[in-house]
Structures are given as structure tokens and as C-alpha cells.
Design goal:
The protein has 225 residues and is of the alpha/beta class. The chain is 34% helix and 29% strand. The protein contains 9 helices and 11 strands.
Length: 225
């Protein structure tokens, strides 16, 4: 089974590790701080104390090429570079690293990081997107130039089927899920999966379209606001 390796258990790393576990993923959490490891050990698959500057220790980890690692070491640039390099030596294909500057990001990419993350910048851009383009409810980057987006259906979509709308033909986006917003007895709004889309799926008011596609096509959809 593929696992996620989270190195660095600060606020971002620990939240990520717990979030992945809550979604049914196998998570190996690592930090040099014993207290941080102790705090999270019951909320992840495995948590270990390790100094990732130790190449032998890192290379002793039970890691497979298909595993996904995330290095989140705050402002410890040198240590994050070493950890990334050692993981790359082990043959991991997906190494995601939190960067603190553009120079840091350039070095990480040179030594093999597949994804470089600027969490605060990316959250700010997602918020800007949501404010500027109400049709894009959320956007999750999946790979370079490729994302998953939650789309608010255009007014003209209401009452029509996916087959009639031809979203893939018109926008280059694949609709993979339809969610809907429902109200609980307490009056709170929650999202629920409505259906796996088929050509005869009818779009109703309150529906949310979950689409996957190239960023340029998501941009095309935004222009319909």
C-alpha cells in the first residue's frame, strides 16, 4: 500500500499528516523533536524521531518508489535540501517540499523535488481566485499545469444534462463528480456527493461540479463568470 511520508511536524506538517490519516491514508510522520512525535503518534500510522541530516537513518526508512513524501521543515533550508536529496537517492518519484524563498525553490527543483510548495502564497492565490471568480469554488493543483476544481454551474446549465452541455468539448474539462449542498435539521449547509456523472445527469441549482483538467481550460471556464 502506498504511504505518505511527512518530514517536519510543525503546524503545517502535523496538520497535513493528521488530515491524510483522517482520509484513510497510511502516514509515516517524522521529526527530530520527541515531543512533537509523541503528540502525533496516536493519530498517524507510524511516528518516529529522526534527524534527517543523517543519510543512513533516512535510507533505512521503509520507503517505496511509489510513496509520496512531503518535507515541511519551516525555515531550515539546509536540512530540507539534504532530506530532499536523500529521498531522491532512494528513488522516490513524488517529493513535495515546502520552500521559503525562490532561491530555495530553485535548489530544491535542481536536486529532484517534484513539487515545490509555498503554502501561504498558494492559499492567498486560491482565495483571490474564489473572490474574483465566483464560478471557481475551490482549486487543488495536482501536477504542473493540471488541477482539480470545484465549479459552480453557470446559470444556463440549470435543468440541462451533462450530455447537452458538452463541457469536455467546450472547455476541455472532465467532470468526475457532482456534489450538492443540502441543509441539516439544524439549518447548516453541508456538501454531499450526489452522483458519479453520466451523460443524462441533470444539473440542479445548488450542485457543484468537480472537474479535472489543464489549468488553461479552467481559466477558460472562469471567463464565463
Amino acid at each position: 500500500m502506498r504511504q505518505f511520508i511527512v518530514i517536519g511536524l510543525g503546524n503545517f506538517g502535523s496538520t497535513l499528516a493528521k488530515g491524510l490519516t483522517a482520509r484513510g491514508c497510511q502516514v509515516l510522520a517524522i521529526d527530530i523533536d520527541k515531543e512533537k512525535v509523541q503528540e502525533i503518534k496516536d493519530e498517524v500510522s507510524e511516528a518516529i524521531v529522526m534527524d534527517v541530516r543523517d543519510r543512513d537513518a533516512v535510507q533505512s526508512l521503509p520507503i517505496q518508489a511509489e510513496d509520496i513524501s512531503f518535507v515541511s521543515l519551516g525555515d531550515q533550508m539546509e536540512i530540507s535540501i539534504l532530506a530532499t536529496f536523500y529521498l531522491k537517492e532512494m528513488g522516490l518519484n513524488r517529493i513535495m517540499v515546502k520552500a521559503i524563498s525562490e532561491d530555495h525553490a530553485k535548489i530544491l527543483r535542481l536536486i529532484g523535488a517534484s513539487d515545490v510548495i509555498f503554502p501561504e502564497q498558494q492559499m492567498a492565490m486560491r482565495l483571490a481566485d474564489q473572490l474574483a471568480h465566483p464560478s471557481i469554488l475551490d482549486l487543488v493543483p495536482l501536477a504542473e499545469g493540471f488541477s482539480m476544481a470545484e465549479l459552480k454551474p453557470l446559470e444556463s446549465y440549470i435543468g440541462k444534462t451533462l450530455g447537452q452541455l458538452e463541457i469536455r468539448k467546450n472547455f476541455g474539462l472532465e467532470i468526475v463528480l457532482i456534489k450538492t449542498v443540502v441543509k441539516t435539521k439544524e439549518g447548516n449547509e453541508i456538501e454531499k456527493i450526489k452522483t458519479i456523472p453520466a451523460a443524462n445527469s441533470v444539473i440542479e441549482r445548488g450542485d457543484i461540479l468537480v472537474a479535472i483538467g489543464e489549468d488553461k481550460y479552467i481559466e477558460k471556464y472562469k471567463k464565463q463568470d
